[in-house]
Every structure is written in C-alpha cells, then in structure tokens.
Amino acid sequence: MATVQQIRHVQRSDGPAAVLAIGTANPASCMLRNDYADYYFRVTNSEHHADLKDKLKRICKNSGIERRYVHLDEELLGAHPDFSDRALLTLDARIDMASAAMPELAVSAAARAIAEWGRPAADVTHLVFSTYSGGKAPSADLRLASLLGLCPTVSRTILSLHGCSSGGRALQLSKELAENNRGARVLVAYSEITLIGFYGPQEGRLDTILGNGIFGDCAGAIIVGADPVDCIERPLFEMAFATQTTIPETENEITTRLMKGGLDFHVSIRVSKLLKSNIERCLIDTFESIGISAEWNDLFWAIHPGGRAILDHVEQLLGLGVEKLAASRRVLREYGNMSATTVIFVLDELRRRRARGEEVAEWGVMMAFGPGITIETMVLHAAGSLKEN
Ligand SMILES: CCCCCCCCCCCCCCCCCC(=O)SCCNC(=O)CCNC(=O)[C@H](O)C(C)(C)COP(=O)(O)OP(=O)(O)OC[C@H]1O[C@@H](n2cnc3c(N)ncnc32)[C@H](O)[C@@H]1OP(=O)(O)O
C-alpha cells in the first residue's frame, strides 16, 4: 500500500509552472478618447449635466488612454435604454446579456492561446474563469468549455468580483494547480464586460464618470503547465513565486457590489497614493521570501495599468527608467483599464517586445491591484525561447 507522502510525491510536478501561451480579444466597437464624452452624454440623454461632461473630458484627457473597446455599443444600448438609469431593475437583463457575450469573447482569446500552445483543447485539465461581469450558475465557464470542446472531466473554478487583482489571483491559482497535479494543463480565461456597471451620469456619483473615463472590455486566456513537453510546448514565463497582501483598513477604497440596477463600483481618489505607500514594502517582502536581492531597474515589469496616475506613482517611487513601464503604458493607451485581464495584455506585450529583439530583463514582477485593497505579486522568470516566437 502506498503512503500518502508517496502519492503526494507522484502527483507533484518536477519543475515550476510556466505560461505556455497567451491569447487576447476585444469586442469590435472602438471608443476614441476625444469622442467619448460627446458620445456618452448623447447616448444617455444627459447633455444637461454639463459639469460632469467637463469632468469626464478632463479625465479622458489625462488618462493616457487613446482608445477602448466595448460590447455595449450604441445599437445595443438603443435596445436597452433603461441601462442608463441605475434606479431601474435591470440586473437580470444585464446578467443575461453579459452571460451570452462573455463566453463568445473568451472563446476568441482562448482559441488563440490554444493554437499557440500547439496541443488539442481536450488536453486542458483545469479551467479557471475570472470575471466581474457574471452572476449566475452554470456560468460562462461551462459555455466556454463547451464551445472549446473541453472534456467533461475538466475541473472548473470561477473567480468572481475580485476586480483587477484577479489578474494575479487566477494566475497564482493556476500555478498551484499545475505544480500539484502532474501533467495538468490549466486554461485561465478572463472576460470583462462593462455593461454590467454602465450607467448614465448622476450628480454625486463620480465613480460613474471615472469608470466611463478608464474602463474597457476584453477577454484574455493563458495556458499554464509545468514540465513542458519537448518540441511542442515552449514556456514564455516561469512562475517563480507569488504572494497576496492586503493593505490594512482599506476595505472601502475599492468596492464592487451587485445591486438591483447592476454592478455598483467605487474607486476612491486615494487609491493611487495608497498603492504608492505600500508597494515597495510588498516587493521587498516578496523578494526576501525567496532570498533574491533585486535592483528594481534590473527587472522587467508587468504592472496592472489601473490608471495613468498609478503607473506614474510606481515609476517615481521605485526610480524606474521610462522604458520599464512601457508595456503597461502601451496597453493602457490602446485598450484602457480592462480590470483583471489588463496584466495578461501586458504579459503579451512584453513577450512581443522580446520576440522583436527588444531587451527584456531575465527576471520580472507582475503586480495587480483590486478590492481589499489587495496587491497580488508574482515573480516571473522569462524563459529562454522567447525570441523564437
Ligand atoms: C468605454 C466604456 C466604458 C464603460 C464604463 C462602465 C464602467 C463599469 C466598470 C465596472 C468595472 C468594475 C471593476 C472594478 C475593479 C477596479 C479595480 C481597479 O483597477 S481600481 C482602478 C484603479 N484606478 C485608479 O484608481 C485611477 C487612478 N487615477 C488616475 O489614473 C488619474 O487620477 C486619472 C487618469 C483618473 C485622472 O488623471 P489626473 O492626472 O489625476 O488628472 P486631474 O488631476 O486633472 O483629475 C481629473 C479629474 O479626475 C478626478 N478623479 C481622479 N480620480 C478619481 C476617482 N478615483 N474618482 C472620481 N474622480 C476622480 C479628479 O477629482 C479630477 O476632477 P476635477 O478636479 O477635474 O473636477
């Protein structure tokens, strides 16, 4: 009879979990920075809120965002004008619409990741699905599994309402799954659709203005596994170590809550400064835990670009060279804040830069922030085969 220790030993992988492939997707409707305030106040019949329109214009101007993509375009909103009024009972309709749209978008991203991975979809053993846009079961993860042709035995987990920090949470979970289940291949899929929290402007609800200035829709997918199969699987980033930290007494600074009229969210004006005061301690603790002494400018950085001010503060605090956050800034500029999925786009951007021959450090850090305030940190090692992609 085998012992529990022996059984456990056999289940564990030999090597660390690694990102084996990345795919991304966005809806077709593109919103340009200079047009958005006019568009938003027109389609929500809110031209009388001139002060709020001016504030949205200021946020758009300073956001560092050029364009964003959305599912809820003018035509769809025309069929659901009640979405503009947060007092109306629209949660059911929003969940129905998001539940149909999320897997459709996620399947595009996942199909790209699976094609790059080079193995059949049926080889996926675990699915981790992350979103803030859901609210029912069975959920978008089951529909995604069916659209991709995953096996009925695939082990599914949903991460809901973690907001932007789920970019790190879902990846840490995939690392644990891959390293503790020999041969496991985890598909981590994200789908973020803002229609769940889209409202017209209202006095006293500045979060709505901020949200309309920075958020956008997308899907992302990553395949994670340990002990890559020779000649088929090519690791992009090895996942060396991951931590989660909560900043004490900040539970009211970033919040999300499902209400009868949709997702209510709040992002306090203090968020970027709170992150600035806590990020370096978090990084030092993380690197000390694994006995690495790191010079911040010797690393590559995949920081969640939650807002331009957050990137500015991190860059200034850590004394980073301007090129260090270039991938985060490009993703922010081209797509906006896409919640948890944004750091997946940043990893994709980093590997593209490296594949083009641009210098990317060997070791790096991914950081994501969300309700809590939660800071997710993962130390990554860029695997050697990047230039071949
Ligand atoms: C296309 C479709 C879109 C549809 C949208 C629908 C939305 C649904 C989305 C649901 C998503 C829910 C997910 C929640 C999870 C969040 C996790 C995170 O990323 S957490 C997110 C992490 N991200 C952040 O925390 C954003 C960090 N902040 C920034 O990056 C910048 O402050 C900035 C870009 C917003 C403005 O640039 P900056 O250089 O500062 O420029 P200025 O100094 O000139 O200020 C201009 C105006 O902005 C004001 N204002 C500022 N902040 C806030 C606020 N929080 N609150 C309110 N207002 C704010 C400020 O008071 C000023 O007003 P005024 O004096 O002119 O009247």
Automatic annotation (TrEMBL):
UniProt KW Acyltransferase keyword: yes
SUPFAM superfamilies for the chain: Thiolase-like
UniProtKB keywords: Acyltransferase, Transferase
GO molecular function per UniProt: acyltransferase activity, transferring groups other than amino-acyl groups
Organism domain of life: Eukaryota
GO BP terms in the entry: pollen wall assembly; polyketide biosynthetic process
Record's protein name: Uncharacterized protein
